């Protein structure tokens, strides 16, 4: 587990990079399977980063992190209501609610970091 903790930033930036590449692949019209493989790899790397962050000593999550995580969960739930159980109104409510939570979390993070 200690080796994994040393690579926290690698997991974070690798996950964000793969996420960017996966959406670029989707917009370029490459196979949807390639998109899903890259997207899942990005989610796994970001999950590893979160596990490392929460398990590190002295880590105290703030309100901003809880807002961002709640937004991420709401996006995943909205994807269910978009694909598996198509309810467009509920999908839009959850998706835009998640975007607003993530934006509020980002603004709080920036505000707390400036103090």
Give the number of DSSP strands. 0
What's the rounded overall pLDDT mean?
A: 84
Largest β-sheet summary:
none
Tell me the β content: under 5%
Class based on secondary structure composition and strand pairing:
mainly alpha
Q: Determine Rg (CA atoms, Å).
A: 16 Å
Separation of termini? 32 Å
> What is the molecular shape?
globular
| Percent range of helical residues | over 70%
Low-confidence parts, pLDDT < 50 over ≥5 residues?
Answer: none
Would you list the SSEs in sequence order as H and E? HHHHH
Counting DSSP H or I runs of 4 or more residues, the number of helices is: 5
Report what the structure shows:
It contains five helices and no strands. With 115 residues, it is mostly helical. α4 (63-83) runs antiparallel to α5 (88-114). The chain is globular, with a radius of gyration of 16 Å.
Properties at a glance:
115 residues; mainly alpha; single chain
